[in-house]
Amino acid sequence: MLTKGRLLANHLNVKLEALIIGENLEGMRKEVSQYGVDIIYLADDKRLYPYTTLPHATIAVELFKETKPQIVLMGATAIGRDLGPRISSSLGSGLTADCTDLQIGDYEDKKAGKKYENLLYQIRPAFGGNIVATIVNPDNRPQMATVREGVMKKEIVTTTNEAEVVNIDVSKYLDDADFAVKIIERQIESSRINLKNSSIVIAGGYGVGSKENFNLLHELAHTIGAEVGASRAAVDAGFAEKERQIGQTGITVRPKLYIACGISGQIQHIAGMQESAMVISINNDPHAPINKMADYVIQGKVENIIPKMIQYYKKNIK
Amino acid sequence: MYKIVVLAKQVPDTRNVGKDAMKADGTVNRGALPAIFNPEDLNALELALQIKDNFPDTVITLLTMGPVRAAEILREGMYRGADAGVLLTDKAFAGSDTLATSYALSRAIRKIGEFDLIFAGRQAIDGDTAQVGPQVADKLEIPQVTYAEQIISLEEKTIRIKRRLERGFEIVEAQLPLLITANGTAPECRPRNAKRLMKYKRATTLSERHNTSEDYLTNYNEKPYLNITEWCAKDVDSDLLQLGLGGSPTKVRQVENIVFQAKESKLLTTGDDEIDWLMQELITNHTIG
User: Fold this and answer.
1) B258/A139 CB distance under 8 A
2) ipTM exceeding 0.90?
3) The pTM is what?
4) Alpha-carbon span A297 to A316, nearest angstrom
5) Inter-chain Cβ pairs, chain A and chain B, closer than 8 A
6) 3-class SS of residue B171
7) In this complex, is the C-beta atom of B194 within 8 Å of any C-beta atom belonging to chain A?
8) Are B250 and A96 an interchain contact pair (Cβ–Cβ within 8 Å)?
9) CA quadruple A74, A79, A82, A86: dihedral positive or negative?
10) Which chain A residues have a beta carbon less than 8 Å from that of B144?
């Protein structure tokens, strides 16, 4: 997102600024400054970690009122999707959720007969993934968007220019009412599932048919050293855990090999796997949309094909 | 006793989208699709009903904004345990983005009156934005707790809620009034209650009753619970400039249907030799193994 922000800032010939809110932010500041940021605002206070909505929203709203950014981007994470709408409502500016791409372009409002230059095009799949919409905010500032995790490339910028650091006086903005919600207990489970870093992903869709058939995917994954992913339809059907969901509202993966089993290939799913180096589609339906982007299409039933793959591998690799 | 408002939305079933589903202006033609109770709004209703189980004099009002037809989900909610329904419907609301929607809803909540809790689903399946809940909270100037999956306890004005994080969970404590959005991992909504179904199946809004014969209308005077409240933009004392397409800062510039880039794909059958050949290929070029 910082890399994308840098590109947009270059295009518009403006500064890229970052706002970091939390506690003990020195490490984070260093990390952020690698991506070509001009100014870093730091709101460092022990009350600001772990995250709660109101103090973060208040700090962001007050800062944006003072600094008047044209564009505000935040991650479409659990936190970003909790915080973003609160800020947007306070500022009365439009917010587009879960963007997969951002561009700069012009816009003509034909009804009002107005033309706008250099607006932020906020591009996102919508309506169950059947369309891709480009959203603009012609009149209100900032133009706000949350951005899907993992869809944008990151690039470290080698520059001698250190980012200017501005420390925010947090107590100036916050009062007791901002701490209305208190965290009593917090448990972070370490993820057993490591889809993001797996070089082979075997993903199942609704077409896999049952939880039992999904076990075949796990067996193949175990055999060849892969991780199992799933489409939203498969997660909704209870075939796989939510943590395995790949796509717009799940995880984005870029494996060497992606084996799509019984997945039709709605754009929301495609958004999460389109950068896979090689795609094999196993599907009953020869016209499944995903077949169009597959390197190999095996037409047939998952439960017939996967055991053959397992068998071949076991026979030929010790 | 607690006063609860549950926000719900009737959504097109996005799993069945046909060609005529989009209008020329880029907004959705809802009439062309089967309409359902947004799934996570049902989770929200269940969390509210569980509070009513513990505090039976709690009053749950189900609020929705949409076309006249959206009264269907209000009846559905009443069959499952909601005490009353309010439909917010007006041409002035058409084309609202999340900000204009949350403004209209917040006006309607004010009109409903005092409240302790607002429940809403985390997000609706047609937009997937997850914005309306937090924006309504902001408009009402109350705190929010998102991604709730369980109400741990409620004593007087203090509530404890378990919320789902990306990895793990969190238990938070807050004071009422509060807005809570329900996560899909919250308990599933209880089914319709047969007695309530009998009681409320003729509950209608004024617009729905336009087609009903006069002598039948006396029925509604005798049984006031069959009147589903219907409000327009004026009824909730809203600023017309903040409603609908005009009150929405975000505009749809362009809508594209999905076209996949066709690339040369090799078609295989389920024959042993063809699967073996593919596996051989993958192993030889070190994709696997």
Assistant:
1) no
2) no
3) 0.80
4) 23
5) 245
6) strand
7) no
8) yes
9) negative
10) 53, 82, 86
Check if the beta carbon of residue A123 is closer than 8 Å to that of residue A133: yes
Taking contacts as CB-CB distances below 8 angstroms, the residues of chain B near A244 are: none
- Tell me which residue in B99, B169, B171 faces A89 most closely, judged by beta carbons: B99
Q: What is the pLDDT along chain B (289 residues), one digit of tens a residue?
A: 999 999 999 998 765 555 566 666 555 665 677 899 999 999 999 999 999 999 999 999 999 999 999 999 999 999 999 999 999 999 999 999 999 999 999 999 999 999 999 999 999 988 889 999 999 999 999 999 999 999 999 999 999 999 998 778 999 999 999 999 999 889 999 999 999 999 999 999 999 887 666 666 677 778 889 999 999 999 999 999 999 999 999 999 988 765 545 567 888 888 899 999 999 888 887 788 6
Kindly give, in sequence order, each residue whose CB lies less than 8 Å from that of residue A110, ignoring residues fewer than 6 positions away. none
Q: If 0-12 CB within 10 Å is exposed, 13-18 middle and 19+ buried, where does residue B153 land?
A: exposed
Tell which residue, A104, A263, A253, A277, has the closest CA to residue A193.
A253
Smallest CA–CA separation between B167 and chain A, in Å?
6
Pick the CATH number of A200-316 from 3.90.70.10, 3.40.50.1220, 3.10.28.10, 3.40.390.30: 3.40.50.1220
Inter-chain touch B134–A85, beta carbons under 8 Å: yes
Q: Are A144 and A120 in contact (CB under 8 A)?
A: no
| B128–chain A Cβ distance below 8 A for any pair | yes
Q: How far apart are CA B163 and CA A52, in angstroms?
A: 12
- Termini Cα distance of chain A: 43
Tokens at residue B254, please?
A: 């362009």
What are the boundaries of each domain within chain A?
2-179, 200-316
Contact criterion met (CB below 8 Å) for A317 and A298: no
Encode pLDDT of A192-203 as tens digits: 778 887 889 999
Retrieve residue A86's tokens: 């609160």
Contacts of B266 in chain A (CB under 8 A): 295-297
> What does the alpha-carbon distance between residue B71 and residue B205 come to, in Å, rounded to a whole number?
7
DSSP A143-195: EEEEE-TTSS-------S-PPEEEE--HHHH--GGGG-SEEEEEEPPPPS---
Asked if A253 and A273 touch (Cβ cutoff 8 Å), the reply is yes
Which ranges of A180-276 does DSSP label H, i.e. alpha helix?
211-224, 232-236, 267-270
- Select from A134, A281, A300 the Cβ nearest to the Cβ of B270: A300
Which domains does chain B possess? Answer: 3-242 (3.40.50.620)
Q: Cβ contact (<8 Å) for A95 and B98? A: yes
Residue with tokens 């051989």: B280
Q: Does domain A2-179 have CATH number 3.40.50.620?
A: yes
